[in-house]
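We store amino acids, tokens; thus:
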Amino acid sequence: MHPRKAEFVLILIAGITGVIAGFAGIIGCGFMSVLVSYFADLASGVDIYTSMIDTLISYNRIMVVIATLALIIGVALFVFAFLIKKNAKVFGSLTLTLGVVGFFLTWCLWIVPGILAIIAGIMCVARKPDF
């Protein structure tokens, strides 16, 4: 039996939900870019709406970067789940760090994966190894 099974499962679920959140963010930005281009065509002659459309375009670029970061962190957590057997303290602290950093970088995309990663990271760092 695996002595760190709870940590493994929590990190694995955090990684999977992180990847799902990243893909959902990227798909959402794709839909948003379609809507922005549609409204840009409608308001092509009106100067008032041009600044609003430029703001939406810049916001969409920022959201693509944030969603990509969520995807990268989710993949890293997925890999850490399988490496937790080798050195639980190191990968537990990396999981804890990615869970906390994910909250600051990816805002609302990272609620579930972040909480799971923080709990698993604390469990890995605080628990003594079973021999």
Observations:
- The chain has a mean pLDDT of 86.
